Amino acid sequence: MGLPMKTLPRPAFLEVTAGTASTIHELYKDCPSYFQLIGMEVPDLLDVERELEALGMDPYRRAHLLEVEGEVLGYVDYKMAYPETDSATISLLLIKESRQGQGLGKLAARGLEAELSGKVSQLYAVVYGNNQKARGFWLSLGYTHLRDGGPSLGWYSKSLV
Ligand code: ACO
Q1: Torsion angle of alpha carbons 122, 139, 151, 37, nearest 10°?
Q2: Of 55, 65, 95, 145, which sits with the fewest C-beta atoms within 10 Å of its C-beta?
Q3: Mean predicted confidence (pLDDT) in 58-75
Q4: Sign of CA dihedral 100, 151, 140, 93
Q5: Which of 88, 79, 68 shows the shortest CA–CA distance to 27?
């Protein structure tokens, strides 16, 4: 008989601040396959700091570190009131590579849906690159494929009403 499966708690959504740049950078370094997939170098610390500055200047953008049992295991970045005023769009949900496929992404997405329901009526997810895993992930969570904006951009959406 195998060991009982450990039930993961829903990740806590921590505020991202200028001081969390190095934590985000560490997480990015732990996700080399994703950056390879989208044809990008893993961002360096300065890139992350610049990104956080841009984030701080945009009142509609939100980003959170995803923490489970005191450990940062992911990151989520989304924009409120985009593309419609009563919607939001997730541009990146990233789970640490060694912890992917354990249900964390699903818990994080469900957590975000719960946080946004009542605030927006539609939640979108934009998938970059030839990312079949991400496409399968959003479909499995009940998102509908809306359209492809070119060969490497897929829009998915779900009603939160
Ligand atoms: N193919 C098809 N479906 C899949 C796959 C796959 N390779 N992997 C997971 N799924 C589906 C499964 O149906 C699974 O449900 P199940 O557990 O009932 O079988 C469901 O997704 C949830 O799986 P999780 O274990 O929660 O997925 P994970 O924790 O790995 O999170 C994520 C998914 C966010 C895509 C993660 O793998 C990741 O960070 N990947 C790298 C970055 C990335 O591609 N992020 C998404 C970009 S698109 C965007 O953010 C809008």
Answers
A1: 110
A2: 145
A3: 97
A4: positive
A5: 68
* Closest atom of ligand 1 to CA, residue 156: 51
Q: Which of 28, 33, 137 to mutate to test the pocket of ligand 1 (most atoms within 8 A of CB)?
A: 137
CA distance 44 to 152: 24
Preceding omega of 83 cis (within 30 degrees of 0) = yes
pLDDT tens sequence across 41-52: 999 999 999 999
Rounded distance between C-alpha atoms, residue 37 and residue 135, angstroms:
13
CA–centroid distance, residue 103 to ligand 1 (Å):
8
Atom of ligand 1 minimally distant from the CA of 108: 26
The architecture (CATH level 2) of 12-159 comes to 3-Layer(aba) Sandwich (3.40)
| pLDDT tens string 114-156 | 999 999 999 999 999 899 999 999 999 999 999 998 878 999 9
Model's pTM, two decimal places? 0.95
Chain-wide mean pLDDT for the chain?
95
Q: Where are the domains of the chain?
A: 12-159
Structure tokens at 92: 């990146």
Instruction: Find out whether 9 and 69 touch, Cβ atoms under 8 Å.
Output: yes
Q: Say if residues 36 and 28 touch (Cβ distance below 8 Å).
A: no
